[in-house]
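Example record

The entry below shows one chain as it appears in the dataset: sequence first, then structure tokens.
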Amino acid sequence: MDQNTASAQVPVGAAPSQGTHHGTHHYVMTLQKPMDGGGYAVRSLSGTCTPGAGATRYDLYQWVMAEMIRAAPQLAGSNVMFFDVQPNRI
């Protein structure tokens, strides 16, 4: 399994992140795609961001998916196995 962490990357129309691990929201997405010849490619991305006013959960979902495919084009057409976004506070 390949896992990446992104911080200070922000969806389109969003306010700048507050820095590494200090955005207002934390997100995680895992993609899975069958590979030719058997097996699966699996990749996860997690990070923080501060969405802009009016941004929706779906906007962030689309942005994270696009970032993952931009970084690994072979994942285009993958199945989303997991997605979550929550306020970045305890």
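Notes for this example: The radius of gyration is 13 Å. The first strand starts at residue 2 and ends at 7.
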